[in-house]
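Researcher: Last one for today. Full complex below.
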Amino acid sequence: MKIRSAEDTRAVRAALAVGLPTAAYGISFGALATLGAGLDLWQTMVLSLVMFTGGSQFALVGVLASGGLSAWPAAVASAVLLGSRNAVYAIRMSPVIGRGFARRAVAAHLTIDESTAVSTAQGSIRSQRIGFWVTGLVVYVGWNLTTFVGAVIGDLLGDVSAYGLDAAAAAAFLGLLWPRLATLQAQAVAVTAGFVAALLTPALMPGLPVLVAALVAVVFGATNWLGATRRPSPSSSEGTP
Amino acid sequence: MTTWHVVLLASILCFGLKTLGYLVPARLLERPTPARMVDLLTVALLAALISLQTFANGQELTLDARVPAVVVAAVMFALRVPFIVVVVSAALVAAGIRALT
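Model: Here's the assembly. Have a good evening.
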């Protein structure tokens, strides 16, 4: 796709700002998988190439690192639970991606937090597509390169959070959320979902808090609580980008 | 179960979950209530991700260098500073605090 409008450029910028710091985290993953869980280089690479959903990958090797191979049911279950939010993302992205078996199959593989977040934060369907594909590909290529580097030399770099990449990712997500907070309903959903996710984190398995927070949107959406009444006033369409 | 079995089983299941969502018919999402849900879903998911990315440390909640970094980012977004500048600034704030403490 050729980049034409200012909107396209914005989508690409958001894709890079979210994708590059995320991709850098592959170093941590590669190091944890090989040094922590004792996976070999190829097993580590298969996880990044085929599973390709960071949270699940960290969960799998995290459980294997602490529990050993006999903990495999818990390791697989936590990876699957964490990955289940990708199914929700896929439902959200499905109309954006469009038709064609091959395109949808590749899109399915690239459906992760970051590609969905960047895409849904864009205005036109065209820039939503650009956001999805650029983010997905940047993270995929970058994540696999850094996984390889991490698996080979990870112990030399130490904890990459020392470089502030975790805060960069949080700020990038915040930048995507910011323009969507124009309505009272959206603000209420954001605050509630943020609280729900944080409060449930100590209680539930990793991955589940995000899914429960997603239910906040379902409840607000179904009841239209705090939503705009459908009066044809000029200000009612404001804030929906 | 060998390590290879675990790696392949979990990878295939996770890929299957992604594929599943694309099999839901698109016209189900076009009516007003599902459309509103889908829009709010974006807001809820982003807010949840920000919250976890800021406060979660594994399954614990912590207040660390990420919190001031995200506050700085929020102020900068409110002042309409460009996206990439904000993201880099947030990283620098967190890295700076960690280097000093």
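Chain A touches chain B through 98 residues (CB under 8 Å). The two ends of chain A are 23 Å apart (CA to CA).
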